[in-house]
């Protein structure tokens, strides 16, 4: 396997790792892009047993210039709001035919493609995954 293919595989696996982790916690899933696609917003409430309060989490995944960005908000809109932004994967194909998501019946379906051009030929790697989200009680 050549270096470009290995890079594509690793980038797709990184993207899936982060999205699966957040989606399994999510109680609410919102697809806000064209055709209910990216950006993908995942939200959940965590109970803070130390002071008997709730902690609100919101994670937004967006694709910007081939990078999958993860913006994580805690207690958004509150004085204690925190924000962490990072790039979780590169070379992500933003074409909705190759990278897309759908949410129905508590299951988030993802198809993610990483593609590298500029070599003798284009190299790409696609993964599909279905994730069951947490019920919103």
Task: List descriptors.
single chain, 137 residues, alpha+beta, 5-stranded antiparallel beta sheet, 3-stranded antiparallel beta sheet
Task: List the SSEs and their pairings.
Layout lengths: L2 H23 L2 E4 L8 E9 L4 E12 L2 E8 L7 E8 L10 E5 L2 E10 L6 E10 L5
Antiparallel strand pairs: 1-2, 2-3, 3-4, 4-5, 6-7, 7-8
Summarize the structure.
By secondary structure, the chain is an alpha+beta fold. It has one helix at 3-25; strands spanning 28-31, 40-48, 53-64, 67-74, 82-89, 100-104, 107-116, 123-132.
Notes on the structure:
This protein is of the alpha+beta class and 137 residues long. Helix content is 17%, strand content 48%. It is built from one helix and eight strands, in the order αββββββββ. The chain has one helix spanning 3-25, and strands at residues 28-31, 40-48, 53-64, 67-74, 82-89, 100-104, 107-116, 123-132. A hairpin with a 4-residue loop joins β2 and β3. It starts with a helix and ends in a 5-residue tail after the last strand.
């Amino acid at each position: 396997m050549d270096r470009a293919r290995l890079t594509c595989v690793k980038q797709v696996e990184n993207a899936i790792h982060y999205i699966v982790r957040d989606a399994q916690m999510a109680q609410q899933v919102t697809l806000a892009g064209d055709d209910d696609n990216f950006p993908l917003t995942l939200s959940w409430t965590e109970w803070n047993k130390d002071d008997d309060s709730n902690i609100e989490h919101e994670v937004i995944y967006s694709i910007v210039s081939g990078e999958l960005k993860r913006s994580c908000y805690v207690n958004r809109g509150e004085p204690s709001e925190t924000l962490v932004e990072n790039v979780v994967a590169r070379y992500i194909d933003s074409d909705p035919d190759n990278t897309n998501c759908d949410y129905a019946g508590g299951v988030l379906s993802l198809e993610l493609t990483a593609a590298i051009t500029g070599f003798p030929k284009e190299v790409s790697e696609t993964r599909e995954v279905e994730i069951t989200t947490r019920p919103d009680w």
